[in-house]
Amino acid sequence: MEINELINHAKEASKLSYSPYSKFAVGALVTTKDGKYFYGANIENAAYPSGICAERCALYHAYMHGYKKDDLDSLIIIADSDSLPYPCGACRQVISELFPLDGKVFVANFKGDYLQTNIKELLPYIFSSSNLE
Ligand code: THU
Questions:
Q1: Can you tell me which atom of ligand 1 is nearest the CA of 22?
Q2: If you placed Cys at 28, which of 2, 55, 106, 119 could pair as Cys (CB 3.0 to 4.6 Å)?
Q3: How far is it, in rounded angstroms, from Cα 121 to Cα 37?
Q4: Which residues constitute the domain of residue 63?
Q5: pLDDT tens digits, residue range 87-105?
Q6: Which residues contact 7 (CB under 8 A, 6 or more apart)?
Q7: Average pLDDT of the residues of the chain
Q8: Which CATH number goes with the domain that contains 52?
Q9: pTM for the full predicted model
Q10: Ligand 1 lined by 51 (C-beta under 6 Å)
């Protein structure tokens, strides 16, 4: 899927955000190598830490349809902001385990600014299962 299509889908996903506390709607999209895609959005809660970010929501959504790390192609995160919505630390950790290390990660805003990166850049010196041995 090319970037404009990714952005359009991620914008649609952001409409599903439940963010009455921050009023900061975030959308995410995970695409798979076999051409499927899964939406995610941030879902908040009055007990603030119980909320979840859009990109984790999208990744868990893909997993709930049977997809695994190596089946995934790209991840895009979008918000209607001037800056780009870089994933928080907790999301970077989850991405590092559930998404390919060199998989395409895009961060974008509604104005059309975007950046392509990957989790190796976003989270160097990753803590993973190998560190538990
Ligand atoms: N948020 C995301 O969903 N993804 C990000 O990459 C950054 C932050 C959400 C969490 C919370 O619902 C709101 O944005 C404000 O932090």
A1: 15
A2: 55
A3: 24
A4: 3-132
A5: 999 999 999 999 999 999 9
A6: 76, 78, 108, 112, 114
A7: 98
A8: 3.40.140.10
A9: 0.97
A10: yes
